[in-house]
Amino acid sequence: MSLRNRLTLLSTAIVSVFLALFCLLLYLVAEQYREREFRARLRAEALTAGRLLVGPGRIDPTLYKSIDKNELTVLPQEELIIYNTQNQLIYESGTDYLTVTPAVLNRVRQLQTTYWRENEREVVGILFRENSTPFIIFASAVDTYGERTIRNLIQLLVGGWLLMTGLMLVAGRFFVGRMLHPISQINQRIDGITASNLSLRLPAGDSPDELTQLAQRFNRMLNRLEEAFRLQRSFVSHASHELRTPLTAITGQLEVSLLADDSPDELRATLRSVLDDVRGLNRMTNGLLALANASMDSSTVPMAPLQLDQLLDQVRQELQRLQPAYTIHLHIAPLEKPYTDWQMTGSDPLLRTAVFNLLDNGGKFSPDHTVSVSLSGRDKSLQIQVHNTGSTIPADQLSAVFVPFQRGRNASGLPGYGIGLSLTERIVRLHRGDIRVESSEEAGTTFTIILPR
Fold first, then answer.
1. CA trace torsion 382, 383, 386, 391 (10° rounding)
2. Cβ contacts of residue 452 below 8 Å, gap of 6+?
3. In this predicted structure, what is the pLDDT of residue 413?
4. Hey, which residues does 450 pair with through a beta bridge?
5. 299-318 pLDDT tens trace
6. Superfamily of the domain at 3-150
7. How far are the Cα atoms of 130, 365, 389, 406 from residue 413, in angstroms, in the given order?
């Protein structure tokens, strides 16, 4: 069943149930009112009969019967019965509709006023006193007019309920269809969105309703997907180009060596060159693998408490062991901070890779291979700054330094593949941190990492 039909039936059912309860309430109120009014009239008839037949101004019973028959306000099928204290019948209107037992007489004496119903006939019994002499008077009749009015009301309520239910069904289908029309448009537009056509967007209305919010969020998701596809295509294109260059060089050198009658020294030089290319290819492959691993969801990366000050010192020692010509100055301020102030939750190997890339990059671009690293703390974050005084990054290329395989003009002639900074940026994002770069002729180049505690 379609959503339109389900919503229509559900709304119709809810309204129909409440409307039926309302109709039932009207019927019960009307029935109680009819019963209360009719019993009041029966009691009034019984009191009138008592005053005229056994009261001080009593009249002849035959005359009362005659008056009762010709009265216009007499109740339908009315019957009046009067008993004395010895349970003897002293007056009966003659219709003989009602049979009274001694048990009924005793109950009236106990309750003084009692009501009951026999089939369609309603009966009231009262204890009437005249000069301390008690009489029991019964008045009974059939509320023909009231019952007919209630039946007409029931027919009106049932007919109105059926009519309103039908109208609600038609109106609900119409309005639910209008409400769900944007979903039909969204479905049609989604069918046209493919991997090769991610530029299409869903129509979003101006009203701040749930469907508009859904379309806006879906469009934002499409923006992220389009950006991811663009980065993936760019990544594949650049990776293919970077991998092809060393492979072409290796192939060319080996083919020349096979065709030429080189001496052992020349062959040894060729092998050294090929080995250098293979090592470079291995480094680039490891970088691509690390870049792919850093792109996964943070929930799949094991996180644990770590000391950031110790991590920086260990990375500094490791880089100076691999690059003895590099000079790295580590400054942790203020030094009197407690040991746990530099603690955070993160992935130790990934953060080591990120910091190592920044330090290695700074030493590579600095003329004297000197890098300054500072660690500072805030209430909810830790900040790492890596500074070097080498060639600055052009202002028009600052926004692209974290794009894979993108290298600035200042990197011309220096080894590298444009993977390190993009890998660092993804690791920082994986830790819900932020990284930015500032570069100028006067101040040099400074990379700033802000990580949450």
1. 150
2. 344, 380, 381, 382, 431, 432, 433
3. 45
4. 383, 434
5. 666 788 888 888 999 888 88
6. PAS domain (3.30.450.20)
7. 131, 11, 18, 14
Question: What's the rounded Cα separation, in Å, for the pair 283 and 437?
Answer: 25
Looking at the chain, the domain(s) classified CATH 3.30.565.10 span: 301-452
What gap in Å lies between CA 273 and CA 161, rounded to an integer?
93
Q: What architecture (CATH level 2) is domain 210-293?
A: Orthogonal Bundle (1.10)
Q: For the chain, where do the domains classified as CATH 1.10.287.130 start and end?
A: 210-293
Q: Which amino acid is at 317?
A: Q
Residue 448's Cα: distance from chain center in Å? Answer: 37
Domain 301-452 has CATH 3.10.450.50: no
Q: Are 317 and 310 in contact (CB under 8 A)?
A: no
H or E stretch covering 159? helix 144-191
List beta partners, residue 432.
none
Q: Where are the beta strands (DSSP E) in 166-322?
A: 304-307
φ and ψ at residue 304, rounded to 5 degrees: -155, 160
Q: How far is CA 380 from CA 174, 175, 347, 383, in A?
A: 54, 51, 18, 10
CA angle 146/150/152 to nearest 5° reads: 115
**Backbone torsion region of residue 258, taken as left when φ is above 0, otherwise alpha when ψ lies between -120 and 50, otherwise beta:** alpha
- CA angle at residue 93 from 125 to 85, to 5 degrees? 50
Does the pLDDT of residue 287 top 70, yes or no? Answer: no
Which residues lie across from 116 on neighbouring strands? 123
The C-alpha atoms of residue 189 and residue 202 are separated, in whole angstroms, by 6
With a pLDDT cut of 90, the percent of the chain lying above it is 12
Residue 74: DSSP 8-state: P
Start and end residues for every CATH 3.30.450.20 domain found in the chain: 3-150
